[in-house]
Specification:
Layout lengths: L2 H9 L4 E11 L11 E12 L4 E5 L6 H8 L7 E6 L2 E2 L5 H7 L3 E4 L13 H11 L5 H14 L16 H13 L5 E5 L7 H18 L2 E6 L2 H7 L2 E6 L2 E7 H6 L4 H8 L6 H4 L32 H5 L5 E2 L6 E2 L17
Parallel strand pairs: 3-8, 3-9, 6-7, 7-8
Antiparallel strand pairs: 1-2, 1-4, 4-5, 9-10, 10-12, 11-12
């Protein structure tokens, strides 16, 4: 293999690479803009995802996971960093170029009701991206919309109805059908099941898993519920105050968490078996999430960490590889094997 070919192979190993991504919001309240303050929603995030895999992103509300998804899809512009999609930096594309790229990158939103135009019938909602990008028209458009309804398990008669006539789960299926219309390569799912009843969540998760196999899709799955992420993800990134503190294959992360914050999140998962519940008593995540406008120095988590030492208050830890292949953690004193906790299931 030539040197050039080897470099090309390396650069295309991942469908998406996020490098040093930052999104800071100016929240200065001074009338004349003095003493500027910035909310660091995303503050130096690095992520990688291979074709056909699912990367879960988890963390408490306010950790920056949804903002990360919005910047990756260019719904928000980045403050700094790169988002390489098939080797091309999306942050450098102009409006016309990013509009064309949206055929390959779609999004499924948390609230299916607010993301669907209430004045449009389901047929128009699903047909809109196909018309916008001049994919099909006429009778072929009708056939394509009906195919998409079939794919997500909805009857053709639904095409004539409005979003408010459906349940939350059905509306989310409509949103998924619309996201699939342009045959994307990457779908960012921003908490797609958090607004649904527990009984419906598993149905939507199973639908997403089936569609991934059927259409060779790649997912970024954003959620604050760890059981859903565990169910669908190949790798999981744990975010805290705008940064990734742990990134690992799903099984390794849940069975051998190396960051105290990850351990706390897993420990907080409800355990249905009463005989095991006593073993998980106590809350490892004490205190409130610090302000992203004025985060703590050093390791941002040290104010809530039961294992924090003096170094943690001063020096910022870097996201580094551990001895386990593919397991990265940003912690000066990563947890040793044996700290695993009981994980609930859905």
């Amino acid at each position: 293999m030539s040197k050039k070919t080897a470099m090309e192979t390396k650069s295309t190993e991942y469908l998406l690479e996020v490098k040093g991504l930052k999104k800071h919001f100016d929240v200065t309240r001074s009338l004349f803009g003095r003493n500027k303050q910035f909310l660091k929603a995303v503050d130096g995030v690095d992520l990688m995802i291979k074709k056909g895999e699912t990367l879960g992103i988890v963390g408490e509300s306010g950790c920056g996971k949804s903002t990360t998804g919005n910047v990756i899809t260019r719904l928000l512009d980045a403050t700094a960093g790169e988002v390489l999609f098939e080797g091309e930096d999306l942050m450098k594309l102009n409006k016309k170029e990013i509009r064309e790229k949206r055929k390959d990158i779609q999004m499924v939103f948390q609230d299916p009701f607010s993301s669907l135009n209430p004045r449009m019938r389901v047929f128009e909602l699903i047909a809109e991206p196909l018309r916008t990008h001049n994919i099909v028209s006429g009778s072929a458009l009708k056939e394509e919309v009906y195919k998409l309804l079939d794919v997500v398990g909805l009857d053709h008669s639904f095409a004539r109805r409005f979003p408010h006539e459906f349940s939350g789960g059905q509306r989310q299926r409509i949103g998924i059908a619309r996201a699939l219309a342009l045959q994307p390569k990457l779908i960012v799912c921003d908490e797609p099941v958090s607004a649904l009843d527990v009984s419906i969540q598993s149905q939507v998760l199973n639908l997403l898993a089936r569609l991934q196999k059927e259409f060779q899709l790649t997912y970024i799955f954003i959620a604050h519920g760890l059981p859903a992420v565990k169910h669908i993800s190949d790798h999981v990134a744990v975010m805290y105050l705008g940064r990734v503190v742990e990134l690992a294959p799903t099984e390794a992360l849940f069975s051998r968490p190396k960051h105290p914050y990850t351990e706390g999140l897993i420990h907080a998962i409800p355990v249905p078996d009463p005989t095991l519940r006593a073993k998980t008593e106590g809350d490892l995540l004490e205190g409130d999430l610090p302000s992203p406008v004025n985060p703590p120095p050093g390791c941002h988590f040290h104010t809530r960490c039961p294992y924090a030492q003096e170094k943690c208050k001063i020096e910022e830890p870097k996201l580094l590889n551990t001895t386990d292949e593919g397991h990265r953690v940003a912690c000066h004193f990563p947890l040793e094997a044996g700290h695993g906790v009981i994980v609930g299931t859905t």
